[in-house]
């Protein structure tokens, strides 16, 4: 219990998915992205990646806090995007998150486009994606 009588609690993470733009869904994140709250976002990222999208946009305009687990979810989204040929973009990045992304080198990862490698003699429908 905290000294002022309140119990420590982790504010819930809220998210919504806007699929109004085909192939470019936006996952809006509101609250604290931390150890106790990150799993549902990771699940939503995986579910959304399975829908045949071209770009995934993560909107952090309502983010209040992030810890290393939350950061790992962003890296997970990037990794999945690299494997699936999906661009991952961040939108409405708060100053504190921008600083963390810069210090950890994640900003550089997110700037990389997924690489599409075509085997010799392959048609455009035979493309495979590498990270």
Describe the structure.
It is a single chain. Helix content is 33%, strand content 27%. By secondary structure, the chain is an alpha/beta fold. It has a single domain, classed as Transcription Regulator spoIIAA. Strands 1-2-3-4 form a four-stranded mixed β-sheet, with helices on one face. A two-stranded antiparallel sheet has the order 5-6. A hairpin with a 7-residue loop joins strand 1 and strand 2 (26-33). It is globular.
Considering the chains and any ligands shown, give keywords for the structure.
131 residues, alpha/beta, Transcription Regulator spoIIAA, two-stranded antiparallel ribbon, globular, disordered C terminus
Question: How would the blueprint of this fold be written?
Answer:
Layout: E1 14-18, E2 26-33, H1 39-49, E3 55-66, H2 68-84, E4 87-91, H3 95-104, H4 106-110, E5 115-117, E6 128-130
């Amino acid at each position: 219990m905290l000294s002022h009588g309140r119990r420590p609690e982790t504010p819930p993470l809220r998210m919504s998915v806007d699929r109004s733009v085909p192939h470019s869904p936006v996952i809006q994140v509101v609250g604290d992205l931390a150890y106790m709250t990150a799993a549902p976002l990771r699940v939503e990222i995986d579910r959304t990646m399975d829908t045949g999208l071209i770009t995934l946009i993560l909107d952090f305009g309502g983010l209040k806090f992030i810890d290393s687990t939350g950061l790992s979810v962003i890296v997970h989204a990037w990794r999945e995007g690299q494997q699936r040929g999906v661009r991952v973009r961040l939108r409405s990045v708060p100053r504190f998150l921008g600083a963390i992304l810069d210090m950890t080198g994640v900003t550089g990862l997110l700037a990389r486009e997924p690489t599409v490698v075509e085997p010799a003699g392959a048609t455009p429908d035979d493309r495979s994606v590498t990270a």
